[in-house]
Amino acid sequence: MRVLGIDCGSEITGYGVVEETAGELRCLEAACIRLSARESLSSRLERVFVQLARVIELHQPRVVAIEGVFYSVNAKSALKLGHVRGVAVLAAGRYGLEVAEYAPLTIKSAVVGYGRAEKQQVQKMVARLLHLETPPEPPDVADALAIAICHLHTAATLERQAAAAR
């Protein structure tokens, strides 16, 4: 299975494509889209859409996994994040892809084994699971890869449970 993980952010949106074959995880592409406050909102959102569409067309993932909605004290920040998140969901929908959402605690638990893990712990564990020489930078890229890994682990568990129920 191939999954595109996206860590939506109003300044940096990380993304990563992870494939699982015969129980081995492999990173096919991982990077980030840096957004400048000097650009218009429409230009920033278009750039996110175009880049994610390129990744989807190139790697043809089966699923897009993103972090679920969270609550923020700062309404303006939450609104900006919501715009980027909406564009990520739109990109997935444009290509007919399922969107899976995971809570931050679930993602960290699936990758590190501890839901309150620090960013550095996530980066190190993602590097270890994907056999990368160095931890992904910036942390947004590691988070995106962690989201994809979380989905792969979750999907495998659900498949085993369904098979056992038969």
CATH architecture descriptor name: 2-Layer Sandwich
What is the highest CATH level, the class? Alpha Beta
Task: Please count the beta strands (DSSP E, at least 2 residues each).
Answer: 5
Total tally of structural domains = 1
Residue fraction in strands: 15-25%
Question: What are the secondary-structure elements, in order, as H or E?
Answer: EEEHEHEHHH
Mind summarizing the main beta sheet?
Answer: 5 strands, mixed
Q: Note the total helix count.
A: 5
User: Helices and strands: which structural class?
Assistant: alpha/beta
Low-confidence stretches: none
The overall pLDDT, averaged over residues, is 93
Overall geometric form: globular
Question: What fraction, in percent, of the residue positions are helical?
Answer: 40-55%
Q: Can you give a write-up of this model?
A:
With 166 residues, the protein is of the alpha/beta class. The chain has a single domain (2-165), classed as Ribonuclease H-like superfamily/Ribonuclease H (Nucleotidyltransferase, domain 5). 51% of the residues lie in helices and 22% in strands. It has five helices and five strands; from the N terminus they run βββαβαβααα. It has helices spanning 41-59, 75-94, 104-111, 119-129, 139-165; strands at 2-7, 12-21, 24-34, 63-67, 98-102. Strands 3-2-1-4-5 form a five-stranded mixed beta sheet. Helix 1 (41-59) runs parallel beside helix 2 and helix 4 crosses helix 5. The radius of gyration is 15 Å and the shape is globular.
